[in-house]
Amino acid sequence: MAFIKKLFAPPIFEDEEKTHQAYLLHTILLALIIIPIPFVIYILIQMPEESDKALLSVVVSEIINIFPFIMLRRGYVRSASIIQIATLWLFFAFISVNGAGVYGIAYLLGNGLVITISGILLGGRGAVAMTVLAMVEGGVMVYAESNGWMPPDILDDALPTWIVAVVLFAVGAILQNLASRTLRTALIRAKESEEKYRLISRVSSDYVFVTEVYKDGRSDLSWVAGAFEQMTGYSFEEYVASGGWVGHVHPDDLEKDAQDMETLHKNKDIKSEVRTFAKNGEIRWERIFAHPIWDEKENRLVRIIGAVQDVTEQKQTEANLKEILLQQSAILNGIPDMAWLKDIEGQYIAVNEQFIKTAGIKTGQIAGKTDFDIWQKSFAEKYRDDDLEVMKTRQRKNTEELQIDGTGREYWVETTKTPIFNTVGEVVGTTGIAREITERKKNEELEQRRRIMLEKVIELGKQVTETSDLRTTVKKIWHGVHDDLKFDRLAIFLYNPERNSMDDTFGTNNQGQMIDVWDLWFPVTEGISEAVTFMSVLEKPDGLYFTDDYSITHHIPEGHDMYGVREFAAVAVWAGNKPIAVICVDNFITMRPIASEQLEALRLFAGYAGLAIENAYLNETIQKELSQKRDFIEELESKNAELERFTYTVSHDLKSPLVTIKGFLGYLERDAQENNFEKFRHDVERIEAAVAKMQNLLKDLLELSRVGRLMNAPVEVTFHEIVKDALEIVHGQIQAKNILIEFHNNKAILKCDRIRMVEVLQNLIDNAIKFMGSQPRPRIEIGEFFNDKKETVFYVKDNGIGIAPEFQDKIFGLFDKLNIDSDGTGIGLALVKRIIEVHGGRIWVESQVGSGTTFYFTLS
Hints:
Oligomer: single chain
Largest sheet: 6 strands, antiparallel
CATH superfamily of the largest domain: GAF domain
Number of strands: 23
Shape: elongated
């Protein structure tokens, strides 16, 4: 239902004339679409033999009418009008040619209808065009009939004639209705407009006028309405008779009035103010708003319509205000602030010297100008809005706003605007004073930035002091300075007061990324370019160094990371009364200047950084001491356990030969009494073997106790020489078992106790020989290599019987012999381990049963 209602409603456009034309065409099209329906019904009932022909005609007709209907709803009003008029003309022309020609109703009345519709929809030119077309059509049909091409048929068939008549009558009635409705609507609008204007003119001091302008340039006032008589004192006839408008303009304003007329002759609106004489001789200020009526055909001004407003009282008020301001100018001009006076329209009445200086205009140019004539549009709009607010609220207003003077300088002002009232309490303008507060705003912004920086520093201080690890602490300090204090590049150098050097640092590359240079160090002494800055920082009481020409001052060569750096700062990081680090910063990547609040924040943050670094040092010292204590306790526990095993083993191993000696002494006495010298010699041999065993055991124990206490002075010796000395000692054993020795010499140089190191190799080779087993091709490999940590690892490898996993942790213990029947005291590998550890190294074993054993060791 809503769709059908919308379909039958005429379209509405923003252009009122277009909407009116669309309404007329919409009504005509709906009529032409609906009218054929009754004819179809009639033919289907009364003349079924003609139904096919009738239906075809109606379908064609409806398509022809619906097409412009669609165009109309899409906004193509004029195009749809032209198509519809052309279609109607073709319709009536077709009937005329096939009917009675110029005698028929289709020609006589049909063309009249088409001409009428053309005039309504297309205007006068459309009606003329269709009239000419109808006359040409009739002439063609007369010529055709006179030549026998179209036989005369004075009488039309009844049905076609009736159809044409009905179409003419229906459309004619619709046009009459549309014309009547349009006229009535226009009259109602005119009456409403007149009534509205009449009501307005009763309470207004304005009047409207119409002036006719002739080809020769003359003009006559032709109509006035409103408060004309009240403002001029004349009736319309008296005013015209006494010279009209020009006859009453003040002589001093005649030139201005002539310029306004020239503007109107250029087809431009004017807004002007001139003085005129009233009937009683008074001079009245009048504001004129005039609009030109232009004749496109003649290309000239033909009429002026406009309004005149009496602004005498306003001008008088402005004059009074200006006089007041001029009286106070001596005082105002002594004030360093801008002062001004505006009327209700925002026009400047008077200003002081400071205003003139700031605006960059001459004194005589200010009167009558508005903010839009002086300031940038965005500022002028803001100032006008403030004026309107002050006048509307009738209250004083204080604002802080940005402004740009005549030279383009941007600055802040504090503005106070106050409404001005006349004697009856009406607002007649505004006055204002603007004081420059740029320095104050800068200080406020600086304080704001400082406050923000201070809050950041306090928060950063909490973060960095929570960390205990030194490297992590320094990294957090780096991120605080780079990410939060917004420096492009920085480096944090840890100061070593014991050797007066800078040790370890985290720096920044030219992409603003952290780089780890933890192993860097250099002395802080004269002659080293990098040390100059640090010496300066460490000597300054406030611990801050800043320069705005670093690269030139320090003679930085091209290609250096610091080449081209201008602004540079360094701050000493103190812990108590001693410096422990230096932080260096610049903004070389973005080339932003280093702000004062950045330097202040950096110096403040350095205090937190000093506390954090000192805490990290103390924590590391404590952790180191705790670790040393733990190591000492573990070592002590290990020594105690070793001592217990040692005591037990010594008592057992020393007791064993003593028992043997004691037993065989008894045998020796018995065999001597029995004169059995063979057994006597055997007993003596057993006693000698037990004494030798005890002697070796005591010797090894003494040797073990000396390691770590009695050491030879370290010397530089090649690993090849150590191996050579050890092989000479065990040469007999190697020869006896026919063992192949492979030595991979990488020419490593050791600084060690040579004698003890030979003992290490001797014991390891001796151990390999003892546990070679029944290997048919015994082999011992000796050499060295570098591991992943770049340490030199020495090794002795054999292809003997190997060591079971469960015994590999025990072999370095005292008296731990894997084979109780083997030679030795069980102290050899313990002695090796002790010597290696005294040299700051470590030893370990890798072995598989049946696949041999490899001993590895490192040295510091």
